[in-house]
Amino acid sequence: MSDLKITGLTKSFDKLEVIPPLDLYVPDGSFTVLVGPSGCGKSTLLRMIAGLEEPSSGQLELNGKDITQAEPSEREIAMVFQSYALYPHMSVERNIEFGLKLARVDVAERKRRISEAARMLQLEQLLERKPAALSGGQRQRVAIGRAIVRDPKVFLFDEPLSNLDAALRAKMRVELAELHARLGTTMIYVTHDQTEAMTLADQIVIMNKGKIEQMGSPIEAYDRPATRFVAEFLGAPRMNVSEQAKAKSSGAFALGLRPEDISIVERQSENTWQGRVRFLERLGAETIIYTDTDGFGDLVVRAKSDVQISPNELVHILPDLSKAHRFGADGKRIEH
Amino acid sequence: MTWINAADNADEKRKGFSFSMLRKKLKPAYYHVWAIAAFTVFVYPLVWLTAASLKQNWEIYREPLSLTSSAPTLDAYVELFRTTPFLLYTLNSLLYAAAGAMVSIGFGIVTAYGFSRHKFPQRKTLMIAILAAQLMPGLIAAIPTYLLMREIGLLDSRFGLILLYGALSIPFAVWVLKGHFDTIPTELDDSARMDGASKLRTLLQIHCPLLLPGISSLFLILFVQKWSEFALVSVLLRDPDKYPLSVGTYLLLGADESDFRLMAAASLVNIIPILTLFVFLQRYLVAGLTKGAVK
Q1: Are residues B28 and B89 in the same domain?
Q2: Predicted TM-score of the model (pTM)
Q3: What's the burial of B92, exposed, middle or buried (CB within 10 Å: 0-12/13-18/19+)?
């Protein structure tokens, strides 16, 4: 069992409250992703879990044991940093070994764990190299290796893929998911990239201004966003949210429609809206159509790639209102 | 029409071609001229010293600018080390310069660490205050320093001189080293902390190896500075056995007649340790001097 329970955790810098009282439960073996825009407090929360930042108040429990005041190295938690934080003057092997040495693990056991991690992460050929002689992906793997050998109860990842190019990021995403499946260890992962969050998480925690807006499964958060913020944050292109006439007539302060829940139709009917095409993005697999719609305003539609349409054209838009999301003035979801 | 244009172009091309060729050919020559000029200005005195130290005294007086000798001899060196305590002076100088530099660097590292890694009130003001302390020439404080050293019983003491040398350069060391510290990402500190390293271990095993270029260049600068220091040491030391090279060389200046041959040999002995240090540390020197400057 290695579940993490956070109760009433707060953090203030001088008089500025960065994280108001926060509760979070991370179940054993879960892949929990903390996601939110920059400055939302997700990294601060992660650093408090790691022990690198001292909470202003509140409690952290790992396996029912209070670790709020414990030193980072005593928490049985390992962390992978955004910049990997490899020691530049040490070889890959010594980088991985450093923590084990300090934990007074004996030489034979150290060698065994290093070679096991190296095999798992395909680092065997690189053990003698210095970090400067490695590619971004390799450095990332060394950083993960350094975490793995400590056999932690919880892994923390602080935006570990943000320094990689798009192709490598996609590849490492798959590797991380596989690693989690293989190790089964609890992982807490911080990112501002909602694609990473959606694909990796089995529990997603969406944060805004230090508060948790919603947590649950990624699909649940996507399909039933608890707040307008979550609705707009998850999904690319993001959800269309309007406060104009169409929202008022639906009895809500704001009305949200996902681009995929809208279609362009040829014939006008009582259910269609009229809009003018402003701009098209042909992505190959699909086409994103930006329109200006009467009573709704800016509306983005996700359509098939072969849609015959051109800018400035007047089109009939058919929204699937059964899938529409309604929000109150407080930003909270209104159930149908 | 086309034909004329083509011819013009070809002509232009040919002209440009020859010009650039000429420039390319001349470039190495320019460099050589400058290099030789610079070499002459900087190295001629050194060569002259070497030549003079190998001459007889009368040869120096007869042909002062000549670099050759009719009968080169090492007599001056033998005489220098035999008739004067020059070996002792050299050892004293080595001790004062190396130990003084190390004291500054030791205190400098710890202080710079604090300034770089910890936030505390008036941090910037304090850094400026430290810089201001460095701006004051050490000689202005010679009399108070003398009185202070006498009060605490460190007058005419090797240990006292080392401490004083060390203390005087701490501000400079702090400024140089803080610049270097700031280039080391704090994520490395976090990472070491997660690995279970104490602050001291992080400083010694993570920071110091990364500061090595900075430390080397700083050591070299401080060493040269202490090595050639004359004013303070001549005020603070009384016992001739404790004199460094700078004072020892000065003592060679006779009241009416100076032995230039001996002076030349002594001057070279002054330079050799510094040159040797340069050779060993030059690899780090350039990296060290430039790295801390830019964040």
Answers
A1: no
A2: 0.81
A3: buried
